[in-house]
## 1
Amino acid sequence: MRYVLRRVGQAVVVLFAAFTAAFVLLQAMPGDAVMIRFENPELGLSPEQIAALREAYGVDVPAHRQFLHTLLGFLRGDFGYSVQSGTPVSRMIAEALPGTLLLASLGFVVAVILAVGIAFLSTYPRLSWIRGALRALPSLFVSVPVFWLGILLVQVFSFRLGLVSVIAPGPVEGLILPVLTLAVPISAPLAQILVRSIDEVYTRPFVTVVRSRGAGHHRVLWRDVAGNALLPALTMAGVLFGELIGGAVVTETVFGRAGLGRLTEQAVGNQDVAVLQAVVLLTATVFVLINLCVDLLYPLLDPRLRTKAGAAA
Amino acid sequence: MSHAPIPSRALLLPTAAVLALLTACGSPASSGAGADGEPVQGGSLVYLEYQPHDSLYPPEAGFYPNGGLVNNIADRLVHQDPETLEFEPWIATDWEVDEDATEYTFTLRGDVTFSDGSPLDAEVVAANFDLYGLGDQDRALIVSEAINNYESSEVLDENTVRFHFDAPSPGFLQATSTINSGLLSAETLELAQEGFSPGNATEVIGSGPFVVSDEELGTGLTLTAREDYAWAPESWENQGRPYLDEVRINVTPEDSVRVGALTSGQAHVARYVQAQDEERVEAAGIEILAPQTNGVNNSLSLRFGNEILSDLKVRRALVAGIDRQEVVDTIYTDHYPPATSTLSSTAQGYADQSEYLEYDPERAEELLEEAGWTVGSDGIREKDGERLSLVVNEAAPQPRSFETLTLVGRQLAGIGVDLQILAADAGTYTEAINDPDQVQLYHSMVGRADHDVIKSQYHSRNRNTLLNRDPKGDSVEDERLEELLEAVASTADPEERDEASAEAQRYLSEQAYVIPLFEEPQVYGVAPSVHGIGFESVARPSFQGVWLSE
């Protein structure tokens, strides 16, 4: 229990550090969002009008007071307003998050299926004749740019073959191509790791022992090898979340989907500090949660770690 | 990110190759019959937008995604014919302007209601212009760029309203016809800037032919027809409610997806078809419409506050060193006519300046030699150890800005001038474009079908694209230019106003302050099943008369 509490405490510290770092970095960037929005010559505002707007937005308040104000707001659940559009940030996040979560989790599931499929097929004795090709797949997948893949899928399956619609599609229809686009590059590192650790587990003495007792390929693969090979892949899952967000930026833009990725892309473009601050914190929270889960799951999967955790606690 | 899409640019080649292959092996998709006939009532139009809107506050409607919405949900006092640029009654049946253009009196129809049921009367019209003419800094609501010298309003009776100006404001009548003066309900006018923001679009109430009935933040909106709309300007073919039941606006940022969706029949209209895609779109049986924006041309403003550009000879050399015909032929299509003045040939007050704009690279080199810039070892000119190197901004809102500037850079390299293109994060970019020593050539344009547009672009208290007022020192360099521009905005007599505008254009040409490139259109792809699409005087779409034959 103390182990869990300590891990949660660490998570809170990490979140505060992420919040502070994001605040400092965003402040350090040249210019600010009010300048970007209103000193844009397109609006044709006079210097006096701009000065009045800067005052109304409180941009020139000292940084430490802004920091406290923002921090207290965040603790209360008030993320402020987008400087670019004036929309409440909480509303923007609330509308963007479900779409991205759905896309990311489906993308992840499909990626895992793809990775497991590739990894296990490539170790099947009967498929040894295409083993080389199967093992080359992850390298190919990892080097396919998401942007290009997305456009290619849209061109072929939507515009040429007319199988799915990309403009105002149904809820399921609208997920097929984006999920596929996202899953392919995510599946690559997973598959690579799985293939490597399956190979590695096969060389361990215990496999030879099990084999010598007459266990068939299937039994060895699923009962003895798979469990051991999955551990490193699980560790990767936390890291891959970052890739999912990165992939979502491109995927959501190509497919015109609402989501966190597109929100982030636009906020970065407009240097919309309020939105970015919230996005950074949200992303950090999810990262921390995933890693926390992985850490807490590990002992359940690996008895050796269980004793270590027990000893530490 | 949005300013420097280097990764995506790097990927353009392979994608283009694959697309070309796909296009080659497929058959062009087209939808519906092309025959015009009796308008059909009903239907839903799918319209692809390039960017999400960022405000429905009319003075901020210059941004195309905003303008496209405001134009359809809000009416104006006066209607400006997009072809002839003449005025006709809309919400106002009649208007009077006093001799020195400081007093405008409008008589209203009196039978118009907002979509929330409240009447569109003199009181609410006065409130509209008090806000647009004066702004409200406490609510972060800006002054409309189109309205100059506004003082106050006066309600004479239920249907008569008068506006007072503290100096002549001959552009005001046209200003009332622009989307920046879209009329909103009294309740809407109480909103702060946040109230006009995305996410709150359904609360912005106008009297236009459509209302925003649904909004999905950042990805789309639905406009629903107003059944009781009965106050269209007389020149509109459809005098009643819109033929369409609804317009579904879908934000589709990716160019190839917009074009592909259009050609594969998944959408009816797409805004911002890039020049390089026009041929493919037309080959698929889609019509390209390219209404002009009738204002200041797509051009490069030369910041003469910078030391290198303070020399008239250098500026003249730059103007003579640019072959705009090659720019248009290489990067654009017939819909982008080469510029012949700072103003578009379809703009109010246009005066031909082509004599100043001839491409003459030899003369350009002579001028640079005379100015003391001699060719250095790498082909770039030098003077007192300084290289003749200039920076131009990549203008993200302008079509193919980067490609254009790359070509312009190559042309200038031919006369020994090095041109660097600035593409940076938004903060660095905004700082740089407001500093004549960081960005010497400013790439921009502005659309508005009134003489005032030239003042909007170049006057030191408006867009100030020449940085005639250096934002740091706050002093105005060229007082003569200021006077000429102010004369355009405050000369009441129409003919004298034409002359004032011509004089300002001539002065800009003589001083070689501007390199005009081309007359910028907005390019739309329209499926053959779509009939009757209209555009206001600065090319924002109007859906009131649109009907579908499918």
Note: Chain A touches chain B through 63 residues (CB under 8 Å).
## 2
Amino acid sequence: MIVLKRSWRKYSIDNLEQVMKVKIKSWTGVATWRWVANDDSCGICRMPFDGCCSDCRLPGDDCPLVWGQCSHCFHIHCIMKWLQSQQLHQQCPMCRQEWKFKE
Amino acid sequence: MAAVRTADSRQQWEIIKKNFCIDGDFSQINDSGEDLQLVVRLVQQLGAGQLVLDLALDAIWLALRQSVVPKFWQHFVTFEAQTNGKEDDAGEGSVEVMSRVATAVSELYDSAGSFVPQINRCEMLCEQSGAKFEDCIPGGLMEHFKLHLRATLHSQMPSSFMHLLHKFYSAAFKVFYQAEVGSQVEESEEVTDEPVPCGGCGGATDACHCQAITNTFCQVNKQLYGLDLLERLAGDIISSLLLSVITDHVSTTCRDSYDQSCINQLEKWVENVVVGWLELVYCGSRGQLSSADAAIQTMVSNNLNQTYMTALYHTYTTTRIDQLFNIVIEYPESQPALEDIRECLDRTHLRDRLVESLRSAIQTRLLHPGVNTTDVLHAYISAIKALRVLDPKGVLLELVSEPVRQYLRGREDTVRYIVTSLTDESCSELSEELLVAAPLVLDDSHSDDDNMDNWETWTPDPVHAHNLKSKSQRTADIISMLVNIYGSKDVFITEYRTILADRILSQFSYDTEREIRYLEHLKVRFGETLALLHKCEVMVKDVADSKRINTSINSDENPHREKQKFPVSAMILSAQFWPSFKEERLQVPEEVTKELENYTEAFQDLKGNRTLNWKPHLGQVQLEIELKNRTLNLTVTPTQATIIYHFQERNRWSIDDLSTMTQVPKTVLRRKITYWQTQGVLQEVESDVFVLVEGEETGEEGQTAAAGLPLADIAPPAIEEDEAESVMASAQDQREEELQVLWSYIVGMLTNLDCLPLERIHAMLKMFVQGSVECSPQELRAFLDRKVRQHQLLLTNGLYKLPKN
């Protein structure tokens, strides 16, 4: 009797295999954003790129990065300050090449 | 001639002797035939005034000593002998005592009265002959006589007398008290048919002898007062009876009710009873005080104010002090009681005792492991509020609450509770407090220069306020007091940040209005400039930004949207500003990975040069699970969703396989699976193997699963704890991470200097890493020991060293 019952259950399980359907109605994930840059922190203010420059309070859109043609990047506020302090040639503080914003 | 003179003088002496009772026989004093004036003149002629007076007085004193007083005392000695043994027979005893005392006293009164003519004679003699008695005492000879009587009485007093007199007065007092107070009580009592014993004399109502007692009592008092003995013999008893009845009354009145002010009522009561009793004793009946001697009047009012009112305040305060812990806990219901105490504290000297007693009550009832932290905190808050009522200067509070603060500092979850209740609307006590827009007053802010504008209202601190903290700190508000438990704002804001992160990542509500409101309050309280609060601000802004990004990515213009199988949204965080997360791994199903990648791409399009790092184990998933005969709509975590997702392909998974598949560690997996067990979807058929439970074949497992109810008997109900689990790294992990900063310094040090003892490392770190990371030597040792265990460091002879590789 018991054997019978067991085999019946096994049968029924096999049979039902395809019955359950999991439908994802919505998925809310958690992610952290980061800048796609070849370094972690700004060469001028030494703060992380994902944070903000020392004058800003909010990261991201409010304190964006800019790239030069030399492929170095800085917080925009940092490099602007740097460039304003340069009287003659506007150079990248890292590689001393002439600073040009990457288009 | 000489013989005649001798005979003559002998006769004269006899006359004098008789008239002044020098031989001590006072019985015939009234029927001596000679004219007193003649006798006095005779004495004067003989120039023996002083001698006669001395002899006469000596005779009186002797009579007092040898007959009057012993006779008086004899009454009590014999009575004591008779009643010895049947001590507590109150009813009968008191009557007997009453009559015995009455007889004795009236006898004494009579016999003392019989001396009065004699005294008068002596006084006259004094006046006319200029003889003097010991006149160091003010008052006439009568006063002198009374003094002697008192002295003699006291010198021979038997030990049992006070006891008897006490009985006498208590019986009388009981009658009085019953008449005075009992009448109010009786009305409320139920009327019963049984013979109620009279409250006053204890006899049956119909055989009540209250009136008799009162009458005897008044007579005795009058006689004693006449002899100037009342105050001397019974004064103590009279007042001690009053005091004890005050104590009793106060303690019954104050028992367990703190919500009514009763000090005024008690004052009235005391005045009533005291005046009534003293009137009865000194004037013979009620309402006679105004017509009595001025001396009695002043005595009564002095006694009333000095002795009995003081006693009342003292007793009241002591009683309340014993209940103070409960009173404090029951604040604000106990406000009236506290106001009473405050009033009484000014009139008594019990502050020290109050502090002492409350401290010990707190110690025994509050500060032990059996009490929840929330309860301790509530008690602390109540204490702050309640003791402020008692003492607005906060000195008492400071003295009492120091142990509580110390204790709370030792509990790990204190900060969490404080911060949670600060920002929890259901716990109104603290969140309302937060709305009070006042900056924190902390220990380290030295603003206690007394305001010179109000110098006229300045009052010095109470004397026991020595060695306490600054005034401003003592009067700080509740939140300041709570923050001061730790003395630093950072601990609180760090905790708040963790709680905020947890709340955001468990609710996914995107509704930041409430958080912004709290943040503003906190900013007012803790100061705008605090770096940690700034981080919290960014966190809240992240939520708002995420909402915007989600809307824009999921809008119709988005090209990816067409192919989307299900909507994906995200909480996009600025990692630098959030507390560190618990790192857990999770391989989400292919389908999901693809959608997340799509989302990332959309994000990159939206915000050039930025990309996303997913934390796959965090999030919220809405599922619709179709089983054979039921459909479940659930909101679960990604891990839980992934687990059930895999059961679509196979209905039987072992933990090992599932762990390889999802990359979730087995222990975590096991914990997460319990959720599905409680939902009745999965079942553990053998150890570590789970199968899907479809609705149909539950014939023998019961109908509960089919009905969509959780299968309580199958599943271990351990899920709730899991739900409440924090997604943030624990404080300890965060600390570990902070210490990790030091590691590079330590490696540098050891590379240069080969090997160093702990103290040197600590000293050098202090020099190099000023400010950024504080670390005690003990903590550093624990940290280095962990490194040793991980084989990143060697420890030999107390010197740390890098392993050679």
Note: Residues 2-16 of chain A form the longest helix (15 residues).
## 3
Amino acid sequence: MLGLPIRLVNAMVRFPNGSSALQGVTLSFSEHAFTAVIGPSGSGKSTMLRLMNGLLRPTAGQVYVGENEIGQAPERLVRQTRRQIGMVFQQFNLVRRLSALENVLVGRLGQMNPLRSTLRWYSKADLAWAMHLLERVGMAEHAWQRADTLSGGQQQRVGIARALAQRPRLILADEPISALDPKTSEQVMELLLEISREDRIAVICNLHHLDTVSRYADRVVALRKGQVFLDGTAGDLSPEVSRELYYGEAEAEEAPAPQEFSPV
Amino acid sequence: MAPSRTIEPPPQVRARFLRNRLVWLGLLLTLYWASFGTEISPQKLWSGLERSWQFIVGSPERPNSGFFPPNLDRLGEYLNEMVITIKMALWGTALAALAAIPLSILASRNTAPHPLIYQLTRRVLDLFRGLNEFVLALIFVAAVGLGPFPGILALAVYTAGILGKLFSEAIEVVDPGQLEAVRASGASGLQVFTHGVWPQVLPTVISMTLYRFESNVRSATVLGLVGAGGIGLYVTESIRAFDFKAASTILLVIIVSVMLVDYLSSKLRERLT
């Protein structure tokens, strides 16, 4: 199994306040194991990632995940699709008052019936799987610790275990290392890479650091002002190209103010 | 000598001074207006003080007057009635919390399924809080008859209005990132609530519920005055019968119990949150 093919066709996103995050993006993601998505703040990286698991709906255009078009699909189908896609966040987004273990079990919610999940009545198999994943990311000894007592790097490891708990075919990582120090960042990136290689799970990862990109990415997609600026490999990122990507040409000053994504 | 400089506040600062003075003046005028029809009178208070003192300590001319010493003959009965009062508060608060949880989900901007439902639920909660427990108890006594049950219903409705509002305020400030992560795993709306919202609001839910329980014990002690059960009935009965020595026992039972409940409940709040 080689990941979950995703296809964006002329996808556009415009927020209710009128600002435009994506202006017609057409991209396919299938064979590449580790894709880095780069671009300046406000270029639409986070928005694009959230289109792929239906956390956001496109204003126009289509989003195909596997065979399904999820841009216009009913919530139920989107939810089913989402279960096959793990997500890792910049701010880790662990439920702070729950234990590391229960945070990993959040990844199993999609497979649990409402009664069992409300009563927090996890199956033996799910518990064993969650424990196994915590071991794998090196967090087994902190399983019962509350998430908000963990360091940033530890929280991100739990976040990755939570994504893996879904048994995903694809992992979306939204700037997973921007909130971490260099050493921890490296460990987290190594872990993501290892997962993508060993489990053959495709990873699509928003990144800021270009040296990280050239070290890990098989494919690089660059966005600028909501449009595809470059689609190639790290080798295509010459100093001139990256300069243009981040600083733009003459019209850089009149560019619209960066639009940060805010979840509804 | 350098020329002396006068320090003139800028016009907007002077405008603020003026506005502050007008606010104080307005407040005083309002209080003056409120003194008509309410018979505010220092003389009456002063002359009444002496009579109140006689009323409490009793006068030697009249036998059996005064509150002291308390008459402990029926203490067991009063204690029993006080326990019923506390039970009323327990049920009233529990029913209220149970109703307030779903209501607060509908009354929070970030969890309401539709803005219209949000508005509607908010207004319903306003309505629940609009009448105080005492008036609600009158209505429920008329509806279901005398006894503790209408009292419980009155407490439940009023408290549901308060807790619903407080819970929804807690829900509205939860961290959306944590919810997004739960949602991204493919969880349903209910699961986003149980695993994303609930852990975040639980401390507030517990402390607010306990806090309302304390004040419901206090409210429940007067509901008996309108026939809605509890020790309040004994207060009215003893005073109407001029049995002040019994009344003083009842009041002591109330004061000590309320203090005890407050103390235990606040200890529990500290422990749990």
Note: Residues 89 and 217 of chain B are 5 Å apart (CA to CA).
## 4
Amino acid sequence: MTLAVRRSSSPSLWVGLGLVGLVVVTALASFLWTPHDPTLVDAAQRLRGPGTDYVFGTDKFGRDLFSQVMVGARTTLFVGVVAVGVAALIGTPLGVFAAMAPKWLGEFVMRVNDLVLAFPALLLAIVFGAVFGADTLTAMIAIGIASVPSFARIARSGALGVMSTEYVLAARSAGRSRTAIAVRHVLPNIAGLVIVQSSVSFAIAVLSEAALSFLGFGTRPPTPSWGRMLQESQELLAVEPRLALVPGVAIAIAVLGFNLLGDGLRDRYDPRLEVRR
Amino acid sequence: MNVIEVRDLHRVYRRPRTSLTVPGTRVEALRGVSFDLPRQARFGVVGESGSGKSTLIRLLAALDKPTSGTISFQGKDITGLPERRLKFLRRELQVVFQDPMGSLDPRMRVRDIICEPLVAQGHSDPAGRLKELLDAVGLPQQSADRFPHQFSGGQRQRISIARALAPNPSVLVADEPVSALDVSVRAQILNLLADLVERFSLTLVFVSHDLSVVRHVCDTVAVMRSGEIVEMGAAEEIYESPQHSYTRELIAAVPTLRTAMRRFA
């Protein structure tokens, strides 16, 4: 092996990191400083255009759009982390279990999984909101639970592939227990799939939060949320497209950033994809 | 005493059904296989793909259960034993698999791959053993920190052999260990295997579709066809004077200089 092997620095990883970093920094900065109080209603400043005092202008209640976007970034990150966390932490082990368990048990788990998959995510979130009280956390746990089946399916199909490899046979004949095989061989080898699924689910979670906020089951006013900003802009879309554009672009940046990050991470994390130079 | 005694081994697979009314077809992978392996035997199993060789290996390594028949290992019946009572087998019998890429986890470093049986079996000094093993199979010490894909096919098979030797087994089962390799490195790996078998007084079960390879490594050969052993005996004898027509076909299929010359003449 005289060839020097270097990890490739894929552009998607760095662009993704940059965009996600922007969202994270904005969210963190909002704890220390915002140009105005994002919830301050000021009738005198209604629908001001962008300027030096109000960078993105104000909405129909005279609230500063830029401050709302900053604080809204917190909500977005919170939403993504909770929903994807719930889905990945339940779905991945479930899928691996279904792949490694006796056939009848695995089939049973997957059929129950299909049942959950068939249940609309938003409806589940609304039911949760009605039962446990509507707020961002309940809504996102519901969205997370609704995303469990997609993680379970991805994890199961990946795990079935891994279980049929010779290195799992070798591990079995080495005397490894089932749990050790799941942790040492199956999970690392399906991590790429789970990471990509996470980035997709993150995007879905952010959009679901927007939809739920509109219906009154998501983030409750006055807590700023990009989704709610977008919905509130609807009635003035023709007059003030700026009100939709600002949160829309913010959502796009976050979703795109996480997708690119997921892609880049998968490429980087897979040692087989290393580029030899 | 025989290390392995196989008696009337059957293994029937059932293909998944493709129709609601018709049951899946039965595939008889093994049909009454019996043989004895004395200590330090070098036993070759030859046959074309689908002859039941791989099934036999899985059963020997207790990675699968036979439909009927028994396998005893060092006088102990291992058929149908639960995993927790197979610990002695996991130490005493190790397998070298065919595909040197597929049998090594792409996400594990060579160190962890080779030490896997040691860690699984609670060895006291895996690091020290790793050094010995790398030496034994002729790999440089710094290989330990690399990933499998950074090695050539022959080197990967060396890693696989090192892992198999790790728990200091008495029986080594090799499933077509050279058929995925370039012809140029086959001889190296075969010689390495032969040396290690000699050095550590191993009992070898060597499975291949290539009779000429088996002949070089093994003293006894069993020829398998459709799940049955059709001929068994000393390697040279079978190669020189095959009794069964199928064995003759297998030998005729091995390319030699003479047959090659005739073809191009």
Note: The interface with chain A takes residues 58, 61, 63, 83, 86-87, 90-91, 93-95, 97-99, 102-108, 116-117, 120-121, 146-147, 149-151, 160, 163, 166-167 of chain B (CB under 8 Å).
